[in-house]
UniProtKB/TrEMBL annotation:
Involved in formation and maintenance of cell shape. Keywords: Cell shape, Coiled coil. One of its GO terms (biological process) is regulation of cell shape. InterPro entries: Cell/Rod_1, Cell/Rod_MreC_2, MreC, MreC_beta-barrel_core. NCBIfam families: mreC. Residues 126-281 form the Rod shape-determining protein MreC beta-barrel core domain. Pfam families: MreC. This is Cell shape-determining protein MreC. Residues 72-116 form a coiled coil. GO terms for cellular component: plasma membrane.
Length: 287
């Protein structure tokens, strides 16, 4: 095996460098004098140009791909920032909508309190309303320490919504009139003109029509649609308070058993969105 001769390799490299430098010098001189380069110089120039292209091609390709990746990363970051901004705007919009809704209910509750000046009432917040029993019950943050008792009528959004059905020291459960389980403690109501009223019993809620159902009407008077219905205060005991708004008449029909009429009442209150309530303890100076 032949021994590697380093000195020969150095000599060959020096000859190539000298030749290349000579070609460059001659080319530059010819360029300044506008003369055509020698044939050897042309060959060297062409070879150098070809080598530059071959070497530069992958470098340019890598640079182009790097630019593409950089642009993609910039676009991705911009999209992520835009998504976050959109999410923040959506959150703020929802918070604003919630605040507006709560403000509207507070105004309604305040207006209701202004109309209940003849009654002893306690205001309360709804603290629990289970989706599984949304139309049946809710929990408020007032209880026996605040003077609440079972069967007291509860109002919200302009009309009665139910009765207190369970009292704890600091909380109470309200059974809603919209319950699919029926109204356990029926509510006596008054219909028609105050000078010649008719009376009946609010017995249930029709979820298909979103109306209360009044039966056992004491007269055959025809009630106009839109006429208001109030509690009558009859019956005695806790919760027998008169002149609380129940709703308005929207229709009637004969009972299926043939024993009288059924009057359909549109609730005066929004039974779905309830956040603040007023518990009516009693009427000042009587029922």
């Amino acid at each position: 095996m032949k021994k590697f001769n380093l000195s020969k390799l150095i000599i060959i490299a020096l000859i190539i460098i000298i030749a290349a430098l000579s070609a460059i010098v001659i080319s530059a001189k010819n360029f300044k004098s506008d003369k055509n380069p020698a044939a050897m110089t042309q060959v060297i120039n062409d070879g150098t140009g070809f080598v530059d292209k071959v070497v530069a091609a992958p470098i340019h390709f890598v640079q182009d791909q790097a630019n593409v990746i950089s642009n993609l990363m910039d676009t991705y970051k911009q999209n992520e920032n835009l998504k976050k901004q959109l999410s923040d705007l959506t959150d703020e919009k929802n918070k604003l909508a919630g605040a507006k809704s709560e403000n509207k209910e507070l105004k309604t509750a305040l207006k209701l309190q202004e109309t209940l000046t003849d009654y002893e009432t306690t205001s309360a917040n709804v603290i629990t309303r289970n989706p599984a029993s949304w139309n049946d019950t809710l929990i408020i943050d007032r209880g026996s320490k605040d003077g609440l008792q079972n069967n007291m009528l509860v109002m919200a959004n302009g009309g009665i919504i139910g009765r207190v059905s369970q009292v704890n020291p600091t909380t109470a459960k309200v059974s809603l009139l919209s319950s699919s389980k029926g109204i356990e403690n029926k509510i006596p109501v008054r219909l028609g003109a105050t000078d010649s009223p008719s009376y009946g019993i609010l017995t249930s809620y029709d979820s298909t029509q979103n109306t209360y159902l009044i039966t056992q009407v004491t007269t055959t008077t025809k009630f106009e649609n839109g006429s208001q219905v109030f509690t009558s205060g009859l019956g005695g005991g806790v919760g027998s308070v008169r002149d609380l708004l129940v709703g308005t008449v929207v229709g009637e029909k004969n009972a299926t058993d043939g024993l009288g009429r059924q009057i359909y009442i549109k609730p005066a209150s929004n039974l779905y969105d309830i956040r603040f309530v007023s518990v009516v303890k009693q009427m000042i100076g009587g029922k």
